[in-house]
Amino acid sequence: MANCDVLIIGSGPAAWSCALTARQRDLTVIVAAATSATGWLQKAERIDNYPGLPQVSGKDMLRIFRQQAEDMGATILPQLARQIMPAGDEYMTLVGNDIIQSKAIVLAMGAARPKLLPGEEALIGQGVSWCGTCDGMFYRDREVAVLSAWTGGVEEAEFLSGLASRVDYYFMAKHEQPEHVPYTLCEGTPKELIRLEDGRIRLVTSQGEGVYDGVFIFRPAVSPDSLLPGLETEGAFIRVDRRMATNLPRVYAAGDCTGQPLQIAKAVGEGNVAAISAAQDIQGGNKA
Ligand SMILES: Cc1cc2nc3c(=O)[nH]c(=O)nc-3n(C[C@H](O)[C@H](O)[C@H](O)COP(=O)(O)OP(=O)(O)OC[C@H]3O[C@@H](n4cnc5c(N)ncnc54)[C@H](O)[C@@H]3O)c2cc1C
User: Fold this and answer.
1) Would you say the CB of residue 86 lies under 6 angstroms from ligand 1?
2) What is the pTM of this model?
């Protein structure tokens, strides 16, 4: 069994940012960074909205962040955190087959993975995207489809309508639409995505097919509260206050798992705040 001040669960920008600041505050840090589940950000070919790392790939960004955390003295366990149990004033967490005892926990596990369409995962970054803000610019004056399982797709489709020459909107689950929309509402439930030889994407639906330059897919994330029973959630996301504290003593959350916007800069900022809050509570002797 290993001990630390803060156990950080996750291997994305929120986790690495949290690890850096926690080390600066002289806390001992273990990061449970599952490599098997590691990250969708790895698939981002180019990131243009993170300061200081222009045109960096997701893979390079994660490598740089992780190396910096390691150099600052964070211990990295490349394992999945499987269960967190309260133990008096501390927490015991099963990471792989090890038990880690910690004074605080930071949940930075990103948005949970939903069931994907056949072909979807392989085409992320190659004509298929989950982020209009990130990738919309690549589709200026081109034809795109929006596949959405929730109302979050409406705002994204409106944004894309200002860029693309055509936006077709498909429902992956029933949800409301405004009375007037600048895109076309289409019949048919999305079933499969196939990349064509010319790089365009064929969308197969229950009622036919369409061919697009890009396909944007939007779903609500799923809550990770099964990892830690008693954790309060708000819809699919973990409920936090401005200190990134959850409803449980010395448990904080940061990044995509706390909700929209799902963006790197926001994840990094929240990881920083969570580390400072953990340091204040541990070093100040606060239980909550
Ligand atoms: C293709 C693509 C392109 C994108 N482009 C941009 C962009 O240009 N700009 C931008 O701002 N954002 C972009 N995003 C969004 C951005 O990737 C996320 O907002 C950001 O990565 C969130 O960081 P995070 O640390 O909260 O979570 P994540 O990056 O999702 O990291 C969480 C990690 O924790 C690990 N994990 C989960 N559960 C456990 C567990 N129980 N134990 C151990 N580890 C666990 C997962 O494997 C995952 O790797 C893009 C996303 C994708 C998919």
Assistant:
1) no
2) 0.77
Neighbour count for residue 5 (Cβ, 10 Å): 19
104-125, pLDDT tens digit by residue? 999 999 986 567 899 998 898 8
193 Cβ inside 6 Å of ligand 1: no
Q: Which domain holds residue 31?
A: 2-113+221-283
C-alpha distances in Å from residue 31, one per residue of 18, 19, 20, 128, 286: 10, 7, 11, 31, 22
Q: How far apart are CA 1 and CA 10, in angstroms?
A: 20
Q: What is the CATH number of the domain that holds 34?
A: 3.50.50.60
Which atom of ligand 1 has the smallest separation from the CA of 17? Answer: 25
**DSSP bridge partners of 85:** 92
* Ligand 1 within 6 A of CB of 39: yes
Among 134, 251, 260, which residue has the most ligand 1 atoms within 8 Å of its CB, making it the best to mutate?
134
